[in-house]
């Protein structure tokens, strides 16, 4: 009789051990995933520099010239390179600069660099998932989803998202280095932040991992000095994060103040509802691939009965309750929910900014969601089979669930391939955004561009008016876009451009140490307003500084001297 009670326990212990996969199967699976990734991203590889690519790479002279002067400008926190991109991201710009020395304007090389770092992030994710409790098969599935998820295409196909992939690679390497090589881990964490601030997610991950690893008493309760040994290194990570945040927030606030002010105009209740609604949107996107879009532009949530808001409340309550439970129990699952929460936190409107919804933002939370869901389902299977009195069936249930999850991969591959095609053309990207958000800014800009190309000034101005009111200020783009040539000299269109130019003069007029790009925008603005003398003065002051914008400033100076357009 005494032997019987031991059988279920033995069966349960066996069921809790994740099935292994052979090295040959792992290599074959990696080869298949690599082939799928190359096939998925192939349509985007010849796509042009798009949107942010232009001021990050294509037209960024600090990237084009690999010199001590450019290096100093890139490394300086509030230097001209940081001001040009409104972020302090020296790691990203240095890698762009190295790529430019090799490929110059050959866009395929820059796409290849970006895809390489996306693949590297997937490779680095595997040992991290294994460290925090996922079995081999679950890890393989999670890596496949991360690599081929439709939302990941924006990261893998958009050249300027090198900041996202490099930050993820460095953050994952920092997690792997800690705690065995804590100083190296802290240094890598700092570098990850210097690629992109959202790499901050790594600190909560290692903190919860340290909590889980704390020693326990004989009775199984955690001992009192829970984080004593880890505390100094975690404190160092925190100091690095705070120091970086102070510098980065100052740069972003001073050079993106218009968009920050616009976001802050919403009421606290509206921002709260919108942030919670985003939770459900991201959950749906992560689980199904639905809801991806270029240039997301959801409307603010202005009522508590909004379905996205209500679904977000349910998701937050469920995940929050589960997170607290596994954190108290010190289960590995707690690390993943901390990961997901930290990946979402920068988007939660704690610090308001106007565009908190984007495919690329799921990149950091997705591994946490995948790991948390997989470990929660493992506990669920153990609970269910125990209630049924059949714990030995747990491996079969787990296999069935993994197979069901694997069925998502072909769907994701198909959707991702379609989204990669969008990155081969600016027109296709804008059309995608306009289709998904017909009342959004991208749709309005597309309609304005179409109207301008046909010489319809009234419609052009009517479509641009609300976009300008919502913070759009790139009059320089409208000046150089050939589609606007038929309406460029119409007084109504010209008045709108002048309004944007005045905004720039207001923003740049308060700078204590203007840079060459600042003087360039001042000159463009003054010339547009008809103040040619002030424009020449700004150009001369920019040339007196010296730097990689010299030729651009001289060209503008010559154009003014001959009476040409700025």
Task: Summarize the entry for a quick read.
With 566 residues, the protein is an all-alpha fold. It has helices at residues 6-16, 23-41, 52-58, 61-64, 68-75, 80-85, 90-103, 107-131, 136-148, 153-157, 162-177, 182-193, 202-213, 231-255, 257-264, 268-288, 307-328, 333-344, 362-387, 394-406, 408-422, 426-436, 441-453, 457-469, 475-480, 491-508, 516-528, 532-545, 550-561.
Tags for this model:
disordered N terminus; 566 residues; globular; Serine Threonine Protein Phosphatase 5, Tetratricopeptide repeat; 2 domains; mainly alpha
Number of strands: 0
- Total DSSP helices: 29
Basic shape: globular
Number of domains: 2
- Average pLDDT, to the nearest integer? 87
Major beta-sheet overview: none
H-E string? HHHHHHHHHHHHHHHHHHHHHHHHHHHHH
Rg for CA atoms: 26 Å
Distance between the termini: 94 Å
Which band does the percent of strand residues land in?
A: under 5%
Helix content: 55-70%
Which stretches are poorly predicted, pLDDT < 50 over at least 5 residues? 1-16
Structural class: mainly alpha
Structure description:
With 566 residues, the protein is mostly helical. The chain folds into two domains: 18-213 and 224-257 and 272-390 and 408-422, no CATH class; 426-561, Serine Threonine Protein Phosphatase 5, Tetratricopeptide repeat (Alpha Horseshoe). It is built from 29 helices and no strands. The radius of gyration is 26 Å and the shape is globular. It starts with 5 loop residues before the first helix and ends in a 5-residue tail after the last helix. Mean pLDDT is 87; it is low at 1-16.
